[in-house]
Design brief:
Layout (H helix, E strand, L loop, with lengths): L5 E5 L3 H12 L3 E5 L3 H4 L8 E2 L3 H5 L4 E4 L4 H11 L8 E4 L5 H13 L3 E4 L2 E2 L2 H5 L3 E6 L5 H11 E8 L6 H30 L3 H8 L7 H11 L10 H17 L5 H18 L21
Parallel strand pairs: 1-2, 1-4, 2-3, 4-5, 5-6, 8-9
Antiparallel strand pairs: 7-8
Helix pairs in contact: 4-5, 8-10, 8-11, 8-12, 11-12
């Protein structure tokens, strides 16, 4: 097989743009599309062809990679792309879409003769830009050679979870991982907010747990964004975190699991968004601990 592929990337937000750049840097032909065209246009300087429509973007593509907001947005985009899809093309679906949506998207793939890979990624802006994402993937063994060069371009490793993308085993693992990420983010914000309210220097808290089992790099990374007021540009936005938290709550409920922390985190992200922090890093959930449109600075 020719190692040089034509890859269509649909969705060029924080993650999709970085993934498209790395695919182009790996020597593949890249065609991109985004609903807000201005987010795709800079990729032209990186060698990507900026298409005017999803149909134009996927025409003749060996691999289609979707990195859109959610399941409904992905299905709508692929329906627009349908006339340009090549029978037998590979579809790597990397949007965090939820279990039910993955099954629906896989059904679309079957109806259009596509090899479907459930392929969410673990990582935020910095690892995406560095090509160091972890790709969680489930899909047919027979088509893996076609999609592996794309996964190699965007990630440091691929974790294979099964051969049936429709079953959503990769998405299930992603939701479990995200439940931990979002809980840790919310807990970081609450600890900082409580320190603010009680007049405790956050550095005293960090010193107290330093080097012990309660210490963690992620705490320092997210706390630093708040304390140093570096919430923009977002590594992972508040609005996206809320969407993922609600997908996690729904998945738990449908499988007999009550997720109180994830549900509370979703509400915290929603309050932060209502305060005007929706496009900031999810660490901005810190502000949800305070009432009013202008909560106190950390």
């Amino acid at each position: 097989m020719n190692d040089t592929l034509t890859v269509s990337v649909l969705g060029t937000g924080i993650m999709g743009a970085a993934m498209a750049r790395n695919i182009a840097r790996a020597g593949h032909t890249v065609r991109v599309w985004n609903r807000t065209a201005a987010k795709a246009e800079p990729l032209g300087a990186d060698g990507a062809y900026v298409a005017a429509s999803p149909e134009e973007a996927v025409r003749g593509a060996d691999v289609v990679l979707t990195m859109l907001y959610d399941g409904p947005a992905t299905l709508d985009t692929m329906r627009q792309a349908a006339p340009g899809l090549r029978d037998g093309a590979v579809w790597a679906q990397s949007t965090t879409a939820g279990i039910d949506a993955v099954a629906e998207l896989a059904g679309f793939a079957r109806a259009h003769g596509l090899a479907f890979f459930d392929a969410p990624v673990l990582g935020t802006r910095a690892p995406a830009e560095a090509g160091q994402l972890t790709v969680l993937a489930a899909g047919p063994e027979a088509a893996r050679d076609a999609v592996t060069p794309v996964f190699d371009a965007v990630g440091s490793r691929a974790v294979w979870t099964g051969e049936d993308g429709a079953a959503g085993s990769a998405t299930r693992l992603k939701l479990v991982a995200n439940s931990w990420v979002l809980a840790a983010t919310a807990a970081t914000g609450e600890a900082l907010a409580l320190a603010k309210g009680l007049g405790v220097d956050p550095q005293d808290f960090f010193g107290l747990i330093a080097g012990g089992p309660l210490d963690m790099g992620y705490l320092h990374a997210k706390a630093g964004l708040v304390l140093e007021e570096r919430l923009s540009p977002a590594a992972f936005a508040v609005t996206t975190a809320e969407k993922d938290a609600r997908l996690i709550v729904t998945a738990g409920r449908q499988n007999g699991v009550r997720l109180d922390v994830a549900e509370a985190a979703a509400e915290r992200f929603a309050r932060a968004a209502a305060q005007g922090h929706g496009d900031e890093d999810m660490a901005a959930a810190y502000f949800a601990s305070f009432d009013g449109d202008k909560p106190p600075a950390p």
